[in-house]
Q: What sequence folds into this?
């Protein structure tokens, strides 16, 4: 599979000559770079019709790929789990935990790569197929680099075990031989197939001796003249020492045993045992680690790092981690020659073999189109205590800087922003500041989305952001004449002024229609009604109606009188309150006592005196100076007088 990484070139807008035309740009909504070109009038007249003058370049294009979004989503769960289990493990158990996390990350990368590969094969659009193939190459390179970092920095494999890990690494990422072997074996005569020896040698180059021996047995069966040579080579392959990390054999004992085997291979070659068969002789030379023979098989090796691992396998099986950079550089030079220039992937792998973590991060950051890889790899390596000394000049460390950049990119997407919250949460220095800034930029398109954002802010005690969101949603609800929703948002914002405004709207609506809207909300205000006097009045006035409807008239009368005497009702509503007292005053039973009746009379006189004030009617008083209003006042006075007389008689009778 192609694992090349192309260096990102700085490309101008297609068809635009920057020397003749001016370019302008600015950041737009959703992290978009808006680029516009200006042309002279002559150029505009001569330009083909329909050609756009505005180009949009996304900052994080990868986040809009459905398959890459799976990568982002699934890796988010791994990241969060790692942060939570950081303090639960220690020592060797911690190492095994980190290795397991690394493999989880790699499995997610590989799953996305395989899905992308299948889509690239099935799509009919050549342009889309090319785009998917490019993404496959990038994902393959990401897994290749991650796997190597896992071996060198997380597994920290010592001499002996190191080569075994590198062999697994090469076998996983250079796997073309398997499909070729299947093609050869499915033919009528495998040994006559043109790629038969390529398969055998490829298996040997990867140290896959069992498969190589099985393929070689077919040659021994089909070719009598080569049978004895095949048996000798088969014996050499069987005898090849393989280091067992879990065994009792020491590294020194293994080296001695390997040296004896190497000398035996040398004797057979010098004796001319394989001289009559060039392919078998080449395999014997490979077993001896002959560089010239290895370079002859350059096409089968396909990459310089495969060449390096094959050299180590047959010449330096107990290589130490500290010597890897030497073999890596020499293998690269041998493979590419003096005329070729290393690709970005080569530079990253070389940096890994030199154990230069910061160079790996730097090189991949330059090459990659997003921050996913460097952010998650750096976080994992930081948990391995490998980045503790590297602080950046602006107060953060490398881990936090990369996580902040990655999370900021997630916030440019309409749904992936929720993942970014957790990344900010685990950035102790600047994470909260970044979260506050990005939360404020999220478009609150729906109430459901607003509630999600609000819940996040409330969980993190982000008081200013909570208040801001609630105010925005309350204003939107008011504009849409959804008073219940507006009141609910203003209560959550603890905004007394806005709650007062909406309460006035409720009372005005009641005066016009004679009924309350959103009764469920008003009936269940609870302690929230204490937010403002007007809201308290609204809640208590609704409670008066409930008492009245339940025929609990004495309680209703006391509550109505308290609403009048507490002066928390708007002046424009006093007439309504006094009018509500009329049915109670005219009730067959005496509801208001003498003292309560006097209080109502005083309230009525205060109302009329405000109306007749020499300074004019107060702006908030909404009385109509007409016959209807005058007759209502007269009816109230008459009802109050009759009730006072009945109350005096009742109370006098009780005293007697």
A:
């Amino acid at each position: 599979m192609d694992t090349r990484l192309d260096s990102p070139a700085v490309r101008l807008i297609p068809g635009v000559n920057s020397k003749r035309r001016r370019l302008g740009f600015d950041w737009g909504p959703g992290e978009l770079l808006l680029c516009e070109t200006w042309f002279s009038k002559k150029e505009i007249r001569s330009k083909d019709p329909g050609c756009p003058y505005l180009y949009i370049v996304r900052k994080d294009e990868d986040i809009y790929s459905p398959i890459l979004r799976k990568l982002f989503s699934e890796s988010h769960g791994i990241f969060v789990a790692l942060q939570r289990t950081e303090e639960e493990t220690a020592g060797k158990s911690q190492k095994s935990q980190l290795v397991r996390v690394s493999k989880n990350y790699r499995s997610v990368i590989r799953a996305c790569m395989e899905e992308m590969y299948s889509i690239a094969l099935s799509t009919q659009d050549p342009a889309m197929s090319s785009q998917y193939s490019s993404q496959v190459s990038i994902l393959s390179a990401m897994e290749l680099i991650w796997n190597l970092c896992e071996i060198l920095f997380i597994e920290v494999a010592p001499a002996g075990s190191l080569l075994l890990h590198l062999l697994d690494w090469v076998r996983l990422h250079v796997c073309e031989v398997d499909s070729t072997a299947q093609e050869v074996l499915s033919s009528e005569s495998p040994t006559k197939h043109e790629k038969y020896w390529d398969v055998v040698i490829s298996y040997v180059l990867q140290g896959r001796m069992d498969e190589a021996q099985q393929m070689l047995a077919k040659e021994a069966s089909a070719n009598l003249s080569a049978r004895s040579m095949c048996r000798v080579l088969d014996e050499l392959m069987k005898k090849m020492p393989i280091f067992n990390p879990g065994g009792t054999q020491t590294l020194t004992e293994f080296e001695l045993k390997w040296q004896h085997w190497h000398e035996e291979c040398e004797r057979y070659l010098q004796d001319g045992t394989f001289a009559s068969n060039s392919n078998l002789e080449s395999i014997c030379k490979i077993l001896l680690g002959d560089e010239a023979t290895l370079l002859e098989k350059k096409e089968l090796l396909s990459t310089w790092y495969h060449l390096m691992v094959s050299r180590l396998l047959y010449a330096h099986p107990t290589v130490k981690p500290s010597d890897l950079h030497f073999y890596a550089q020499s293998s690269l030079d041998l493979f590419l020659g003096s005329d070729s220039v290393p690709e970005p992937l080569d530079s990253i792998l070389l940096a890994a073999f030199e154990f230069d973590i910061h160079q790996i991060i730097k090189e991949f950051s330059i090459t990659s189109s997003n921050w996913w890889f460097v952010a998650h790899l750096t976080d994992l390596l930081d948990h391995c205590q490998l980045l503790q000394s590297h602080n950046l000049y602006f107060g953060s460390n490398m881990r936090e800087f990369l996580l902040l950049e990655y999370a900021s990119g997630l916030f440019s997407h309409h749904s992936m922003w929720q993942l970014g919250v957790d990344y900010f949460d685990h950035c102790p220095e600047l994470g909260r500041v970044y979260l506050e800034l990005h939360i404020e930029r999220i478009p609150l398109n729906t109430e459901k989305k607003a509630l999600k954002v609000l819940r996040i802010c409330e969980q993190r005690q982000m008081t200013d952001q909570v208040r801001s969101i609630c105010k925005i949603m309350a204003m939107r609800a008011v504009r849409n004449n959804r008073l219940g929703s507006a009141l609910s948002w203003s209560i959550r914002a603890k905004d007394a002024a806005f709650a007062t405004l909406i309460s006035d709207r409720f009372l005005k609506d009641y005066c016009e229609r004679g009924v309350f809207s959103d009764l469920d909300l008003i009936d269940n205000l609870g302690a929230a009604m204490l937010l403002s006097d007007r809201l308290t009045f609204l809640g208590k006035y609704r409670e008066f109606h409930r008492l009245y409807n339940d025929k609990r008239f004495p309680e209703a009368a006391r509550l109505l009188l308290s609403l009048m005497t507490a002066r928390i009702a708007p002046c424009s509503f006093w007439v309504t309150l006094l009018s509500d007292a009329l049915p109670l005053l005219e009730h067959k039973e005496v509801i208001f006592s003498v003292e309560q009746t006097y209080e109502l009379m005083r309230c009525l006189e205060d109302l009329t005196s405000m109306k007749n004030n020499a300074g004019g009617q107060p702006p908030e008083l909404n009385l109509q100076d007409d016959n209807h209003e005058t007759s209502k006042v007269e009816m109230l006075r008459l009802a109050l007088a009759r009730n006072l007389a009945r109350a005096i008689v009742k109370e006098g009778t009780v005293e007697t």
About this structure: DSSP finds 31 helices and three strands in the chain.
